[in-house]
Amino acid sequence: MKAMTVKEVIDGFREGVEENAERDAYANELFQEAVRIGMELNTKYHTLEELRELMGRLIGKKVDGSFRMFPPFYTDFGKNITIGKDVFINSGCHFQDQGGIEIGDGALIGHNVVLATINHDLSPKENRKNHYAPIKIGAHVWIGSNATILPGVTIGDWAVVAAGAVVRGNVPAMTIVGGVPAKVLKVIQEEERHERAV
């Protein structure tokens, strides 16, 4: 019998296939691997090169040499995260990535940001059933501290998510969104792209 692959586990999440003992057992191995690597990442000092190597192990692919982060960092799966070039992730972020997380080049992710790609049924009889939807973060997006991005959200290039926002719908490129739930606060003009935020 051929061994289960990470892709098959991710496809199972995406397709919503419920019972599959072999896939679920392998998924649990991957969850535990994420916990082990996360503990290694978060419980002692690492050089930037070591952090990149650990993140590469965690997400299952090479991380670009321009990637920067401050631990701690938390994920319960890890293998469904894709990180572009020149990305910065600040401390305390939680990425729930079973549904898939794509981070575009030049993105800045602030302290304690939550990226959640899983939701549950509202029905009490079915609330343990998971529903997965990807989060896509465009190029040069800035997500402020303590923001929460919910399943299925796409954030367009050069957009800004204000600190503390809860984003449940797509964010157009070149806009600033904020609030709970987040709404468009401003359209960024081309000439403003290179100005300071404060």
Write out key terms for the chains shown:
198 residues, five-stranded parallel β-sheet, 3 helices, 25% strand, globular
Description:
It comes from Parablautia muri. One of its GO terms (molecular function) is O-acyltransferase activity. Keywords: Repeat, Transferase. It holds the Pfam family Hexapep. It is a single chain. This protein has 198 residues and is an alpha/beta fold. Helix content is 22%, strand content 25%. It contains three helices and 18 strands. It has helices at residues 6-15, 21-42, 48-59, and strands at residues 68-69, 73-75, 81-83, 88-89, 93-96, 101-103, 108-109, 114-116, 118-120, 130-132, 135-137, 142-143, 148-149, 154-155, 160-161, 166-167, 175-178, 183-187. The strands form four sheets. It has a seven-stranded mixed beta sheet with strand order 1-4-7-12-15-17-18. Strands 2-5-8-13-16 form a five-stranded parallel beta sheet. The protein has a four-stranded parallel beta sheet with strand order 3-6-11-14, with no helix packed on it. 33% of the residues are buried. The mean pLDDT is 92.
The main β sheet shows up as:
7 strands, mixed
Share in β-strands: 25-35%
Structural class label: alpha/beta
Number of helices: 3
SSE sequence, one letter per element: HHHEEEEEEEEEEEEEEEEEE
As a whole number of angstroms, the C-alpha radius of gyration is 17 Å
Global geometry: globular
Number of strands: 18
The overall pLDDT average reads: 92
| Beginning-to-end CA distance, first to last residue | 59 Å
The helix fraction, in percent, is 10-25%
Low-confidence stretches: none
Across the major sheet, the strand order is 1-4-7-12-15-17-18
Pfam families: Hexapep, Hexapep_2
GO molecular function: O-acyltransferase activity
Family: Belongs to the transferase hexapeptide repeat family.
Protein name: Sugar O-acetyltransferase
